[in-house]
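dumping the sequnces here before i forget
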Amino acid sequence: MKIIALTGAGASAESGLGTFRDKDGLWSRFDPMKLATPEASAHNPDEVNASYNMRRQNLLSAEPNAAHRALARLEAGLAERGGSLFLCTQNIDDLHERAGSQQVVHMHGELLKARCTACGETMPWHEDLSVEVPCPSCRCPGGLRPHVVWFGEMPLEMDAIYDALLGADLFVAIGTSGSVYPAAGFVSEARGHGIRTCEINLEPSGNARRFNEGRYGPASEVVPAWVEQVLSSRFSSDQGGFTAHGSSHPK
Ligand code: OAD
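..and the predicted 3d for all of it:
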């Protein structure tokens, strides 16, 4: 069985990293156009850097939770059974990797990397960024930015993601509100190609009706239970899915 999983901020919420659109979420408190666009970075780099510096410091003291660990078990378990997991995340944290996932596609980039706009080099980065810091590679000051995707920029690795999506037996979205495209469109793309879809979220998202199935509650509880079920199911590739039990609203 081939599964493609898309994770969002809800997967890391119980690790203490805030979400964006929930009450108290980052975009409920701040205007994303002032903190997460190329224009904001050009006009007010200090404010933009400060926001990412704070998030980087939070990340460095955060730990993966049971949802991250369950997805790492899913990757290994599917591989043992001749299947695969393609894990694609909108999250810029590294908690999937720290939980043991071997292959993670960060479509919105990575907070623990910086990129030099002068020489194009991307490098690991755990310190605060500022316009004074010179690029370690080309020595140009002022060119370093977080290696993240801002509004108005192209998400990364989209060809590989669509290949995996259209070759999958099951698409599962975990902890994402489905507000930001192109990720928000994966469920319709999958269903248009006859691929089963499942949403795992604290509560039904605005996209919930587009999914075949939904499982609701904290990711740290629902994801491990779902992974157990997937790994103990008899795979049935001719049905394009697996023989699952206990779906909340199978369609
Ligand atoms: P959102 O904040 O939009 O949505 C988070 C989702 O997680 C919501 O549907 C919550 O109900 C759910 N949630 C919260 N806590 C949860 C928990 N403990 N268990 C399960 N679900 C939980 O975050 P994303 O959908 O990830 O992009 O946002 C997508 C993109 O918008 C981000 O990658 C970021 C943001 O702007 C950029 O900055 C480009």
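Residues 45-60 form the longest helix (16 residues).
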